């Protein structure tokens, strides 16, 4: 995988000053990147690793 395709991959105690839940509201950077149509999907974990989020061009799905 090209390292340019992975962002925010270093765990930080303050979540990189972001929100710990990467839902449609708080993962807007990921969502906006997917809207460009370059990537097929995006994925993110929440702050404690309990939930996994999939983001696609037209929808999002949360796995708890």
Low-confidence stretches: none
Can you give the helix content as a percent range?
10-25%
Reading the helices and strands in chain order gives HEEE
Strand order of the largest sheet: 1-2-3
Compute the number of strand runs: 3
Cα(first) to Cα(last) distance is: 26 Å
Largest sheet: 3 strands, antiparallel
Overall pLDDT confidence? 80
CATH topology-level name: Alpha-D-Glucose-1,6-Bisphosphate, Chain A, domain 3
Q: Into how many domains do the coordinates divide?
A: 1
What's the Cα radius of gyration?
11 Å
Q: Helical stretch count?
A: 1
Note the overall shape: globular
Features:
about 60 residues, three-stranded antiparallel beta sheet, alpha+beta, about 20% strand, Alpha-D-Glucose-1,6-Bisphosphate, Chain A, domain 3, 3 strands, 1 helix
How would you sum up this structure, described in words?
The protein is an alpha+beta fold. It has a single domain, classed as 3-Layer(aba) Sandwich (Alpha-D-Glucose-1,6-Bisphosphate, Chain A, domain 3), CATH 3.40.120.10. It has 1 helix and 3 strands; from the N terminus they run αβββ. A 3-stranded antiparallel sheet has the order 1-2-3, with helices on one face. A hairpin with a 6-residue loop joins strand 1 and strand 2 (52-56). The chain is globular, with a radius of gyration of 11 Å. The mean pLDDT is 80.
